[in-house]
């Protein structure tokens, strides 16, 4: 099938910082998938829209197993990335689709880019590659909106 391109364009993506650590484990025969599923994951993001250039800028940080007081054994990871997006012909796109592309799709794309980086960083590590589980983007956006409502 021939691919139809989205009006959402990823103009630029940059990895701004990354931190990788490893907490030694003394357990033999450790079920890595079970351990990885216990890791806490924190995702923070800030979005800005430029009215003049119609660009959307998104800064996203993902922290995995960053509990300072009681980290799980294995990987401790933090990655931060920034991306710039643009919607082609935004004024001709239905508002609901425009909102979906500018919020849901942008966040999903940057999380996927950071997921790949996390896997690459850990792939040569002592426990093999850590693959960030699927993320509920709708819940992230709702939590962010709720947090902003509380601040106002």
Description:
The chain has one domain: SecB-like (Bacterial Protein-export protein SecB). 33% of the residues lie in helices and 32% in strands. It has three helices and four strands; from the N terminus they run E-H-E-E-E-H-H. Strands 1-4-3-2 form a four-stranded antiparallel beta sheet, with helices on one face. Strand 2 and strand 3 form a beta hairpin.
Short description:
It contains 3 helices and 4 strands, in the order βαβββαα.
List keywords for this structure.
3 helices, 152 residues
Q: H/E series, N to C?
A: EHEEEHH
Low-confidence stretches: none
Largest sheet: spatial strand order: 1-4-3-2
CATH structural fold name = Bacterial Protein-export protein SecB
Q: Separation of termini?
A: 48 Å
Strand content: 25-35%
Question: Topology of this structure?
Answer:
Layout lengths: L7 E16 L8 H6 L3 E9 L5 E10 L9 E14 L7 H29 L13 H15 L1
């Amino acid at each position: 099938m021939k691919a139809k391109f989205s009006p959402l364009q990823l103009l630029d993506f940059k990895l701004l910082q990354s931190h990788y650590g490893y907490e030694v484990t003394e357990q033999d025969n450790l079920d890595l998938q079970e351990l990885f599923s216990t890791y806490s994951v924190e995702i923070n993001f800030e979005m800005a829209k430029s009215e003049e250039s119609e660009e959307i800028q998104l800064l996203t940080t993902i922290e995995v197993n960053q509990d300072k007081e009681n980290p799980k054994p294995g990987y401790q990871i933090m990655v931060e990335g920034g991306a710039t997006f643009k919607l082609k012909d935004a004024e001709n796109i239905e508002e609901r689709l425009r909102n979906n592309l500018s919020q849901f799709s942008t966040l999903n794309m940057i999380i996927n880019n950071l997921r790949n980086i996390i896997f690459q960083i850990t792939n040569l590590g002592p426990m093999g590659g850590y693959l960030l589980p699927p993320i509920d983007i709708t819940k992230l956006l709702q939590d962010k909106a709720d947090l902003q409502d509380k601040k106002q």
